[in-house]
Please model this.
Amino acid sequence: MPRHAQVNNIDHKDLKVDTRRSAALGDDVGFAATFPAEFRDLQACYPIVFRKDAHGVLSPIALLGFEEGRNLFLDGERWDAHYLPLAIERQPFLIGRNGDELTVHIDLDHPRVGRTDGEPLFREHGGNTEYLDRTASVLLTLHNGLERVPAFVGALLELDLLESFALDVELDDGSLNRLAGYYTINEDRLRGLDAAALGRLHAAGHLEPVFMAVASISNFRALIDRMNRSRAGGR
Model:
């Protein structure tokens, strides 16, 4: 059960965060939440698709594997990609509020949090470490980016650009796997948009992330290759 607290240099002066990558530290996840401004960095490594939450609300994610709780980019204590999604990097921190002010909170029960190993949050005399300042910057970027997701998804839905898809994969070992329950951008409908619709997307800042998401779909081939290597017992 998470135990959140606002970070401060009195109660948490000795806290440290283990920044290694491993399943034991919470990195073995099948996807990471994302936002349009992050698509440019993500699209070189991960397929960007859309999924519905428990309330039926669509939002974009970076797909990390074909199964929940199976991260194909996790190689022991190494993340096997040149870009780490911000939703992964920010753990075990989250944005909180103190009145109108955004504040840094931490999950004290997260496996990354301790007092012996890892990055300290505060300097000896109470000032923030570079690590904590970087974390605050990541959280703010993530918060601001996720706030823009509803407008982006709304624009795609208005133009009927999102469609559900299923991907059937036969692995080298002969096993059949199906990825379903996700949505992607319909490229035929995108190509069929008139100048006015394209202009509205561009004016709202949505056109570039649309193309980044489309380009990212080519990463499915590499993701399948990762699954094959994983099943074979290697990278």
